[in-house]
Write a structure and sequence with these properties.
Oligomer: single chain
Structural class: alpha/beta
Bound molecules: zinc ion
Largest sheet: 12 strands, mixed
Helix content: 25-40%
């Protein structure tokens, strides 16, 4: 039974009322049937007991495994080579008999990882960070993946009293084109979003941001932790009062460090709410109203934590890699997908009453910063996008900053770059980072750190951020 059908079979006293109350809002995230079915289902399932959740997960897993065996060439091969069939996977322990899906495998086998039974018109392209600096491309189901994701995220945000239609300031790496003419924000009336540029947060311009936020009176601020921290530091240094209308900061897409949470709570005088998710949509976990533990959504995917010896990390504080099996993407299924993000489990029971597996902390994407020519910090997270158009020609890339306002981009190229490729990289970069000069250098190899990790940015300038100093 699909999640949709399952949702239908449950009583939803509020369903119709809610539907009419919120209407078919939003052009960006049309709150259509998929959204409402998922949303209504989650309002109940998030309170299920552990047994019912696991039973439900097992049903989704079964459905996914049968689907991939039938329709996805890569997984047919995986099953055939192991001499196993989906029916041999009877519990979560059996799932461990299947091999991991790594970013390298996806990069090399994307066409074999696509389900045959979906037409091209249903595909929506997505990208995420690869293991060696090359963006990883994959596919979602058009209209469906986005609607489901939205339903899960809104369910998370409800925990800090977010209501659909609430006013939000958005500081999540958006480029605002009017910023070149001195207007650093734009308004999205459908979603009631005031979108601020993440690339003009200098000491001279930040007072304008603050005045604009005060005038807008947002209920929430959606932010990259790295971007909101730049604003928080400025407000703290200049003794600026918090925004009284803001109920919580909604922080995703990057690690949220504990010192940062303290700074943000002190400056903004409200809850700092964090969640872990990724564009691959295989795992999603968020804090709740009672604690800062990340509650893994069992309805979204199955999460395993695998320690450095390849065994499940089960001890309090033991770090393990998040290995996820997603239940929502049937077009390009992720089964036992190695996310390369780390997390630590906990045996604690949360007071909120949900029976979700808990993570004590998540170490996902590091926060890093560029320093612009005025000496101000800028979030690094979007620098990857400069390479998206040329990703097929790259083995790896790495930014290096030695001087404020100047960056060097080292590219280990797989095939030759044309002049227009180079122009496209520079143009896209400068679109995000207008107060920078960029130089591109082609190199033979990009070294790893001593611990064998790949670094996207070598920041040689001192950044006084405590934990940012690694
Ligand atoms: Zn809780």
């Amino acid at each position: 039974m699909s999640l949709k059908d399952f949702a239908k079979s449950l009583p939803h006293p509020l369903k119709q009322g809610l539907k009419y109350a919120y209407g078919a809002a939003s052009s960006r995230f049309r709150y259509g049937k998929v959204f409402w079915d998922t949303y209504n289902f989650l309002q109940e399932s998030q309170w299920w007991n552990r047994e019912k959740l696991e039973e439900y997960q097992m049903r989704l897993l079964e459905k996914m495994l049968n689907h991939v065996y039938e329709n996805v060439a890569y997984y047919q091969k995986v099953f055939d080579q192991s001499g196993s069939k989906p029916k041999n996977i009877q519990d979560f322990d059996d799932l461990r008999k299947l091999p991991y899906l790594t970013k390298e495998i996806i990069q090399e086998n994307l066409s074999d990882l696509m389900a045959r039974n979906y037409p091209k018109s249903k595909l929506r392209y997505g990208t995420t960070g690869g293991s060696t600096g090359i963006p990883l491309g994959f596919y979602h189901e058009k209209g469906v993946s986005e609607a489901k994701e939205r339903a899960f995220i809104i369910t998370l945000w409800h925990r800090v009293n977010f209501k659909m239609g609430d006013r939000c300031v958005v500081l999540r790496g958006n480029v605002v084109h009017s910023a070149n003419k001195g207007k650093f924000w734009e308004y999205d009336p459908v979603n009631k979003y005031l979108i601020l540029s993440s690339y003009h947060m200098t000491n001279e311009i930040l007072p304008k941001y603050i005045a604009k936020i005060r005038e807008f009176k947002p209920d929430f601020i959606q932010a990259y932790p790295s971007a909101i921290t730049i604003l928080a530091r400025f407000m703290k240094k200049n003794n600026i009062e918090p925004f009284s209308s803001v109920k919580a900061l909604l922080c995703g897409s990057e690690n949220l460090y504990s010192w940062q949470r303290e700074l943000l709570e002190e400056v903004f005088q409200c809850r700092v709410y964090s969640w872990y998710g990724h564009s691959e949509q295989a795992a999603l976990a968020g804090e709740c109203e009672k604690s800062t533990y990340y509650h893994i959504f069992p309805e979204y995917g199955m999460v395993e934590l695998i320690n450095k010896d390849g065994n499940p990390a089960t001890n309090e504080d033991e770090l393990g890699e998040i290995v996820a099996t997603g239940f929502n993407n049937f077009i390009c299924p992720f089964i036992r997908y190695r996310t390369m993000d780390l997390a630590a489990p906990t045996d604690a029971k949360c007071e909120c009453g949900r029976n979700h597996p808990l993570l004590k902390r998540v170490e996902g994407r590091l926060q890093e910063f560029f320093v612009d020519r005025t000496g101000s910090l800028t979030t690094f997270t979007c620098a990857h996008k400069a390479l998206w158009n040329v990703k097929d020609k790259i083995n790896a890339y790495q930014y290096v900053q030695n001087e404020p306002g100047k960056v060097l981009l080292n590219i280990d190229a797989k095939s030759k770059f044309s002049i227009s490729d180079i122009d496209s990289v520079k143009r896209t970069f400068l679109d995000f980072y207008p107060r920078f000069d960029i130089k591109i250098k082609f190199v033979e190899d990009i070294p790893r750190t001593e611990r064998g990790k790949f670094r996207y940015l070598i920041q040689k300038l001192p950044i006084e951020f405590g934990d940012f100093q690694k």
